[in-house]
Design goal:
Elements lengths: L1 H18 L10 E4 L6 E8 L2 E5 L6 H10 L5 E7 L5 E7 L11 E8 L4 E6 L10 H30 L6 H42 L1
Helix pairs in contact: 1-3
Organism: Holothuria leucospilota (Black long sea cucumber)
Protein name: SRCR domain-containing protein
Keywords: Disulfide bond, Membrane, Signal, Transmembrane, Transmembrane helix
């Protein structure tokens, strides 16, 4: 039972780590949030340990491409502005065009504002090449590891339950009860047979005595 709990906790931790890895704010990391799917959303960048939004002013195809490249996509499909935001922190960005990721560009903090527009980016949907990207490969590896742990837990539970090793699940109880009833019935049958043999022996002895 202790092994089962350890495997269960390990599987849950692996799933939670894989699912919330992108929430950790590490300087230079970018992400898309509040999107319709995994390759669209409002662009954010982690700077000095906090998530900030990109200003739409000055944003273009180059910035979109670099952002999508950093996230593991081959290129960007489109981008648009998101006006009327809450009082959020913005950052402006300047790229030379020869960068390979948006974290290599120059950033300038613009402070808190509710009147500036953020950037909503749509990256090109994942294709075969994307999975060879290191970031995506690492995420896929973590997901596979979590799935293998969960599958191992399920297989272990099935083997224990149906094998009636040490658990008290319903199949175990039912099978154990049936086995006890069979043993009890077999024992009662043997007792009746022995009793019949004993009685027959007594009757035969009485007949022999009467004949003599």
């Amino acid at each position: 039972m202790m092994l089962f709990r350890l495997l269960l906790v390990t599987g849950l931790l692996a799933v939670l780590t894989s699912a919330h890895e992108e929430d950790a704010c590490i300087n230079g990391r970018a992400r898309l949030i509040d999107g319709e799917n995994y390759y669209t959303g409002t662009a954010q960048f982690c700077k000095n340990g906090r998530w900030v939004y990109f200003i739409y002013t000055g944003w273009g195809d180059t910035q979109s491409r670099l952002l999508c490249n950093q996230l593991g996509y081959s290129q960007a499909d489109s981008y648009q502005s998101l006006p009327d935001n809450e009082n959020i922190e913005f950052v402006s960005i300047s790229c030379l065009g020869r960068e390979t990721a948006i974290s290599q560009c120059f950033f300038t903090f613009s402070g808190l504002s509710s009147h500036r527009s953020a950037v909503y980016v749509t990256c090109k949907r994942a294709d075969f090449k994307r999975f060879w990207n290191f970031v995506e490969f690492w995420r896929l590896l973590q997901l596979c590891e979590a799935l293998l742990v969960i599958i191992g837990i399920l297989v272990w539970m099935v083997r224990i339950c149906w094998g009636c090793g040490c658990c008290n699940c319903c199949p175990c109880k039912k099978r154990k009860k049936e086995e006890r009833n069979k043993r009890k019935e077999r024992g009662n049958r043997n007792e009746r047979e022995e009793e019949n043999v004993h009685r027959n022996g007594q009757r035969q002895y009485v007949r022999t005595s009467n004949m003599t």
